[in-house]
Structures are given as C-alpha cells and as structure tokens.
Amino acid sequence: MGHDQGVEDLDRFLAVRGRDLLRVASLLTGSQESGEDLLQAALERLLRRRGHIDGDPEGYLRRTMYNLAADGWRRQAVWRSKLVLLRVRDAAAVRDDTAQVDQRDALVRLLVQLPPRQRAVLVLRYWEQRTESEIAALLGCSEAAVKAAAVRGLRRLRELAGRGQAGGRGCHQLVATERSGKV
C-alpha cells in the first residue's frame, strides 16, 4: 500500500466515522475544542503506526483516544491536587502581605520625617545589615558620627511613633520586625 493510498483510505475513514469519533472525543474531554485536540493527537499516533495496523483502524484510534484522555485526567488530577495546596498558601500569604505592607508603610512614613543622614544611617544599619565601619566608609564620615546619627535617628523615630504616627507601635518593634523579614 503506497503513501497516497494510505492517505486516501484515512480520508474515506474519517469522512464516514469522523463525526462519531469527534463526538466521542468531545465527551471524553468535556469540550468540543479539547475533543478536536484529542482526536488530532490520536490521528497523529495512528499515522505513525499505520504500517503496523492490520484492517480497520477504528479500534486502534478509539483505544488511543481513551488512553490519551485517561492520561489527561491523571494530569488534571495531579494539577488540581497541587492547585488546592497553592490556593491555601496564597490565601494565607495575602493576609500576611497586607499586614506587611501596612507595617512597612508606617515605618517608611516615619523614616521620611528624619533628616537625610539619620535616615541613611538607619537604613544602612537595619535594612542592609551594614556595620558601623562600612556605613562610615559609604557616607564618608567617622564611626562616631554614624553612632551619633543612629542614636539621634532612633530617638526621633521613638518620638514620632509615640505620637501615634506608626499605629501605636514603637520604632524598635517596627525596625525589629522589618529586619527579621516578618514585615
């Protein structure tokens, strides 16, 4: 049987049985589009194995469609089980992220009220975890100036936070939670 004869036989077969096969494929997958994809995948496999199939290809094609559909169901079941886990994690993360954004916003609102040097020292010290000598080198000042700026900055943050501008939380608590990554 030549290549052209095989294509003609397949065309005749699909003209007669194609509609029924597509209906079965659509029922197996749940939609017309997915059914078309399933039937096409099964036909591709049929064409690759055409020389090894004796007689009517419908049995092979139906068996291939059922196996491909079952593989799809298994993949969907695995994906759905993972999706449930992701949804649970996402729901918790949204609540945590909201609180984190609120805390960070309160702290940033306090920080912008500090003079630039104090703000720079506190950011470098507590967020970037730099040492006093590293900060001094970055800012071009002495370690004593860094220590003084940190003390004055923290004192000013305490005053600002004490006035209720940080939601009633102390600045050490805000800085500590920000540093620990819990904010």
Molecular structure report:
With 183 residues, this protein is mainly alpha-helical. The protein has 2 domains: 3-83, Rna Polymerase Sigma Factor, Chain: A; 112-180, Arc Repressor Mutant, subunit A (Orthogonal Bundle). Helices cover 83% and strands 0% of the residues. The chain is built from 7 helices and no strands. The protein has helices spanning 3-29, 32-48, 58-111, 116-127, 132-139, 143-165, 171-180. Helix 1 runs antiparallel to helix 2 (32-48), helix 3 (58-111) packs across helix 6 (143-165) and helix 5 (132-139) packs across helix 6 (143-165). The radius of gyration is 34 Å and the shape is rod-shaped. The termini are far apart.
Can you tell me the residue ranges where pLDDT is under 50 for at least 5 consecutive residues?
165-170
Could you report the average pLDDT, rounded to the nearest whole number? 80
The CATH architecture assignment of the largest domain turns out to be Orthogonal Bundle
- Look at the structure and give the CATH class of the largest domain: Mainly Alpha
- Using the alpha-carbon principal axes, give the shape: rod-shaped
Termini gap: 72 Å
The string of secondary-structure elements, in order, is HHHHHHH
Number of domains: 2
